[in-house]
Amino acid sequence: MALTLRSTTSFLSPVDPTSKLLHKPGADDAPPSCAAVPAPPHAAAPSRRLRLVRAAAAAAPAAGLLHAGGGAGQEHGRARGGVPVYVMLPLDTVGPGGQLSRQRAVAASLMALRGAGVEGVMVDVWWGVVEREGPGRYDWEAYAELVRMVERAGLRLQAVMSFHQCGGNVGDTCNIPLPPWVLEEMSSNPDIVYTDRSGRRNPEYISLGCDTLPVLKGRTPIQVYTDYMRSFRERFRDYLGNVIAEIQVGMGPCGELRYPSYPEANGTWRFPGIGEFQCYDKYMRASLEAAAVAAGHEVWGRGGPHDAGEYKQMPEETGFFRHDGTWSTEYGQFFLEWYSGMLLEHGDRVLAAAEAVFGGTGATLSAKVAGIHWHYGTRSHAAELTAGYYNTRHRDGYAPIARMLAKRGAVLNFTCMEMKDEQQPQHASCSPEQLVRQVKAAASAAGVELAGENALERYDEAAFSQVVSTASGAGMAAFTYLRMNKTLFDGDNWRQFVSFVRAMADGGTRPALPRCDTGHSDLYVGFLDAAKERKAPEAEGAATATAAAF
Questions:
Q1: How high is the pLDDT of residue 21?
Q2: Are the C-beta atoms of 269 and 263 separated by less than 8 Å?
Q3: pLDDT at 202
Q4: Which of 52, 185, 197, 525 lies 20 to 30 angstroms, CA to CA, from 356?
Q5: Backbone angles phi, psi at 206, to 5 degrees
Q6: Contact at 8 Å (CB) between 228 and 138?
Q7: Which residues are annotated as a binding site for substrate?
Q8: Which CATH superfamily is domain 85-266+332-506 in?
Q9: CB–CB of 381/392 below 8 Å?
Q10: pLDDT value at position 347?
Q11: So what's the pLDDT on residue 266?
């Protein structure tokens, strides 16, 4: 019979004396996936359930389905011939007060994910949490405990340097603002955040217009980001390149290299609106004025386009984005080159800092680019333009981004890998499939690795098949699934996900789960001779327990 596992017992010791956070490993140390968890004094004999879980963990690698961590001959954590799958942890895994949330659920989840063949997990390392007590005062303790948990589970970690606010965008389920001392600076100088034509301020991320100005208690934003990353490197030095496989560098709202042109907070924007340009803080305006003077058209520097419409409008409702609108004029080209160029320069500055900090650690650098697929079928690609991607019917806006990432040795992480054109509303002129193909081509031409994510939570076979199809022809470095939650571990969702992970590992085929899995189990782990005659509830699934623990 096929076996599923369940346990409500935490498999983690509060402090692991063998952890590399406490000492550097010696030659005789066991590998992370073999680390033992010592039993407390006078501990009771393990229950039948716990004995079964331990037996499954021991037997599953022999069954060939459990991942054993990265090893020799792998690239970006990739098993030869396949694409490693990571899973995003909940946004509030480390909460606003610096506490590690739902430890029992996280522990059970990591075990279930490892059993499914997942390579590792991704977590947001929130600036607003770590440096909340004041400039240069870093609290890494909750993240240190999480790294220990990931290590014990035999998984790897993608750590996102999240210099943005959580809250106000698609999928945001909690509110984690920027550090309080940064919010104080915003109050005294509102121009350090992005601003639209109406004067609406966006507190999600520091405006790139002041990247090199000492607006944060005497430090520039780039210096603040650098100091933060350097502190992370020193705290987790012994983990970088092994347990911590990747550093994704946040460079804008949602951690993406873009402007906050389509904020959902307070109903400001609604799909499929074109969004608005974010260039009206005094620092961006000063840059635009200087660029206009240099171009010999001083009048062009008096502000952004006056005919670009509002957040919720459609392209044809505006003078700028309509079929033969201002975007295609000499002025439009000047403005869009300046606006997108500022974003590219920002990305290069932040990645240069990350490269200097993490170079030589063995950790992969990556950056996330948003999959803005609505209005892709129009000539102007309005939604991409307001986000800072100068991509139109006749201009490739992703090639310069790919070249910039290649220069810094960073992976291009792109979203909307799960979407199909036929599933999108016709009035929005969406084409996620063509967009993904364009980005794949840009990455290939620049010689930069491509990784992917799904843009929205999906649990259906159609979405998984689309990702597998995309990955099979892209040479994808990794795929990160959004997101770990109770719904993922529910019944058929989990079954679909396990099949998807196996398909990615197989390089793009989607084998069915074994016929012997007649009970529609949540997690197939092979045969265990000692348990062949046993029935549930003695062999309930880890996925079922995980769903209950959330």
A1: 45
A2: yes
A3: 96
A4: 185
A5: -70, 135
A6: yes
A7: 124, 164, 172, 368, 373, 415, 454-455, 483
A8: Glycosidases (3.20.20.80)
A9: yes
A10: 98
A11: 86
So where are the chain's domains?
Answer: 85-266+332-506
Active site residue 310: no
Question: Are the CB atoms for 277 and 332 separated by under 8 Å?
Answer: no
Annotated catalytic, 185? no
Distances (CA, A) of 219 to 144, 224, 284, 342, 352: 27, 6, 19, 20, 17
User: Which pLDDT score is estimated for 39?
Assistant: 41
Query: Pick the catalytic residue: 131, 276, 433, 453?
Result: 453
Mean pLDDT, each 10-residue run in order, the chain (550 residues): 40 41 40 38 41 38 35 43 93 96 96 97 98 98 98 98 88 88 98 98 97 98 98 98 98 97 94 98 98 98 97 98 97 98 98 98 98 98 98 97 98 97 97 97 97 96 95 89 96 96 80 42 35 32 63
Q: Within 10 Å of residue 477's Cβ, how many Cβ atoms?
A: 24
The separation between CA 268 and the C-alpha centre of its own chain, rounded to angstroms, equals 24
Omega prior to 537 cis, within 30 of 0 = yes
DSSP state for residue 43 in the 8-state scheme: P
Q: How many beta carbons lie within 10 A of that of residue 301, not counting itself?
A: 20
CB 410, CB 365: distance < 8 Å: yes
**Residues making up the binding site:** 124, 164, 172, 368, 373, 415, 454-455, 483
The DSSP H or E segment spanning 202 is strand 201-206
In the chain, count of helices (H) and strands (E)?
14, 10
pLDDT of amino acid 106: 97
By the 8 A CB rule, do 5 and 525 touch?
Answer: yes
Length of the chain, in residues: 550
